[in-house]
Amino acid sequence: MFRCPGIVRPAFCQPQPGDLIEIFRGTYQHWVLYIGEGDIIHLAPPSEITGPGPNRLMSVMYDKATVLREDLTEVAGKDKFHVNNLLDKKHEPRHVQAILRDAHSLLGLELPYCVLWGNCEHFVTELRYGRAESQQIHYVVKIGVRALAISLKILMEASRRRGRKGNKTLENTKTS
């Protein structure tokens, strides 16, 4: 039986082959595909291959990653994790045999890697659903767009206020 020492919620502890597992790395999540008997297959940039630690934040620097089969508890280290088939309500999962066949066929390959459109979450969602999606990237983009909108609003307001002050100064010089 598989033991889940680093789980977030006990209800999400019993992964089945083909399940997606989300590992919480602090500032981001690493995604892996559970294949059974405690093993996972994942897309690992060099920063993930070295295991959990501060260098894993360097994944944004790499443009290639390797498809690896490893033990879930070794990859997770002390980080919490749980089963998260996040898109099951949105997309029909593929048959488990097809998921596992395709995952195994990619083992050892070096694939293009990009945090925005080809990361570990894209990799496992493509295996499970037949389409690559990353919810954490959607979230980051949404936050970025909101921050940009707020910044523009602040700049426009500052510019408008500066314009009013300039008009008052101009009026004061005309009356003097």
- Low-confidence stretches are 137-145
Strand neighbour order, sheet with most strands: 5-1-2-3-4-6
Summed over residues and divided by their number, the pLDDT gives a mean of: 79
Structural class category: alpha+beta
Total DSSP helices: 5
Total count of strands: 6
**How large, in whole angstroms, is the Cα Rg?**
23 Å
SSE arrangement, N to C: EEEHEHEHEHH
Between the first and last Cα atoms, what is the distance in angstroms? 89 Å
Envelope shape: elongated
Largest sheet geometry: 6 strands, antiparallel
Strand content: 15-25%
Question: In terms of quaternary structure, what is this?
Answer: single chain
The share of residues in helices is 25-40%
Question: Could you write a compact summary of the structure shown?
Answer:
The chain is built from five helices and six strands; from the N terminus they run βββαβαβαβαα. With 176 residues, it is α+β, with helices and mostly antiparallel strands. A hairpin with a 4-residue loop joins β1 and β2 (29-36).
